[in-house]
Amino acid sequence: MRVASAPHGHVYIQHLADPDTSDGVYRLPDPTPERSVPGAPWWPLVMLDVEWINEHAHEFDVFHLHFGFDAVAPAELERIVSALHAHAKPFVYTVHDLRNPHQVDPAIQDAALDVLIPEADQLITLTRGAADEIERRWGRTATVIPHPHIVPLDLLDRPRPEHRCVTVGLHLKSMRTNMNPMPVLRTLVDEIRDRDMNLLIDVHTDVVRSEGTHYNAEVAQLLQTVQKREDVRVHVHDFYTDDDLWDYIAGLDLSVLAYRFGTHSGWLEACYDLGTRVLAPSVGFYHQQHPGVLSFDWTDEGQPEAGQIAAALDEVEKLGPWRATREERMAQRREIARAHEEIYRTAVAGRPS
Questions:
Q1: Per-residue pLDDT reduced to its tens digit, 225-260
Q2: Is 313 helix (H, G, I), strand (E, B) or coil?
Q3: CA angle at residue 168 from 163 to 169, to 5 degrees?
Q4: Quick check: 283 and 260 in contact, CB under 8 A?
Q5: Number of Cβ within a 10 Å radius of residue 138
């Protein structure tokens, strides 16, 4: 089964295959875009183009879209799906994002989903809650296949570093659109004051330097203030390599996600791989990815419920281990691979030649 997977190079797609043996699925490598972006060499998606489909339709049996269509207009998505069906190629879509974390206006993603979900021959999503929303909004059934591991399998059994006290981490990254870290940061700074905890704040260089692409003066000022505390560390850096990221996550006892909106989280999966608890807002379906994710609500004023964050900080010291094993993730990979192959074959059988 030859699959044009858009994209192919993302770690999520790489981990859909059986870890032990060939699963009967060959995913085409990403064509190289003329200009890619750091961290996403597969974007923009060359495959997501009518001309590419017309020229290469003989090379694949199924077209499987995941993400990366942010800049593609709904009318163009319609043309793409029509081209696939004109070549009798089934279209499979995995609904990762019901709300795009990079877009302020949800109507942009909604318009794309209004094309992709009704037109897909087969739908996949990652949690039962997302599948229920797809059924409610579009009347379509999506197969639920859980998110695979993010961290390489050979690191899943690596011992965690020992900490003198609980280390809580908040990574501001490059202040992605769906992030609302400032009120969460202020709450954490207040709450750890009387606890035997350290707060580690990470942020990309482009946020705190005035010439940076995502410079934020409010963030830069607050970080200058809080880093004077002995129990707070601020780490400004460029994008981590994968190895640096795994070391960073493993060095935390609790990773706090300051997301205003979203659907699913690969960061959460990496934390589970490495044994770092997660405190996530009660938006999207983060808490359905794995049992044991700690929770807080946003108020109508856009503030985190401080009492819930305080309760989570108290609880994290009492909780037992929360970590995937290599064997668990390998067994999951086998099932994920089997489920995808079945979906591809069903899609092919249902599309007239």
A1: 998 999 999 999 999 999 999 999 999 999 999 999
A2: helix
A3: 115
A4: yes
A5: 17
Work out the number of other CB atoms within 10 angstroms of the CB of residue 345. 16
β partners of residue 38? none
| Domains in the chain: ranges and CATH | 2-149+331-350 (3.40.50.2000), 153-316 (3.40.50.2000)
User: Which residues contact residue 199 at a Cβ distance below 8 angstroms, ignoring those fewer than 6 apart?
Assistant: 167, 168, 169, 170, 188, 189, 192, 226, 231, 232, 233
The H or E element containing residue 235 is strand 232-237
Structure tokens at 163: 């900490």
Q: Tell me the C-alpha distance between 120 and 63, whole Å.
A: 10
Angle CA(146)–CA(72)–CA(46) in degrees, nearest 5? 80
- The SS3 of residue 12 is helix
Q: Please tell me the total number of residues recorded for the chain in this structure.
A: 353
Distance CA 177, CA 22 (A): 39
Q: How far apart are CA 254 and CA 280, in angstroms?
A: 10
Give the three-class secondary structure for 200: strand
Alpha helices in the chain (DSSP H): 11-14, 50-56, 74-86, 106-119, 128-138, 181-191, 205-208, 217-226, 242-250, 266-274, 306-316, 326-350
Instruction: State both tokens at 255.
Output: 């990773």
Q: Are 287 and 295 in contact (CB under 8 A)?
A: yes
Residue 65's Cβ-side half-sphere holds a number of Cα atoms within 13 Å equal to 32
Separation CA 246–CA 240 (nearest Å): 9
- Residues of the chain whose pLDDT is less than 70? 38, 353
- Counting residues of the chain whose pLDDT is more than 70, the rounded percentage is 99
DSSP annotation of 290 reads S
